[in-house]
Specification:
33% of the residues lie in helices and 20% in strands. The chain is built from nine helices and eleven strands. The strands form two sheets. It has an eight-stranded mixed sheet with strand order 3-4-6-7-8-9-10-11. A three-stranded antiparallel sheet has the order 2-1-5. The structure holds iron/sulfur cluster.
Amino acid sequence: MKKELLKLARLNGEPEIFYSIQGEGKSTGVPSVFIRTSLCNLHCIWCDTDYTWNWKGTRFKHVSDADPSYRKFSMDEWIAECEVGDIAAKAASYRCKNIILTGGEPMMQQERLSELMLLLKDLVPGVRFETETNGTIAPAANFDALIDQYNVSPKLSNSNNPKKLREKPDVLRFFAQSPKSVFKFVIADAADLAEVLEIANTYRISEEKVWLMPEGTSASALAHRRVWLVDICKEYGFRFSDRLHVQIWGSKKGV
Ligand code: SF4
């Protein structure tokens, strides 16, 4: 039987694998190889990787709909189906020991990603793996055994996803108790903070596992919210995270 391929995002015609630094959360500043999977089970209205899910023919809404030149994406053009071995070779070529699975929603392709991690363990001695996730899909045991850090980013009502899609109680309980999990939330205003407090309280997520980041896609927008958010972190004992990639590159992709 033909082996299923891993679906990566395609950017500038190539599978999206790049070497940069982690821009936010617990590992901020760590040089890392990013492997961006395609496909997402959510459809956040402000998503900045909408080329992983906002396919032609779907009815999903996006803030860019207001731009007359915005077009939904063709799966043929924006998904790169890749052999796991080819991805491992490319990622290993950077000789970097921190590899971040991102998306889209990487947990949708756990089985192939587990194969990828096993190959990379042989190719890059001492490698560690992080995965970004929206916290709606639980990891299988073999995936969980390979991952070193879950960067869990539950989506709030401002994402425009129905609550029953974006909040899966059993999955959030799993991540809340996993020693490998840290949570991160992008905060624009007091309403966002109230939702984070409710999630943290409901699922017993301890404050030292929570990173809050200011909302904004430009350095000036981040600056506007930074002082306010630092004060909130001091009040509740949450960690503060800036968004280095926005500071350095704005909304540029693949960096
Ligand atoms: S969960 Fe992440 S990738 Fe998926 S739509 Fe939301 S922001 Fe985009």
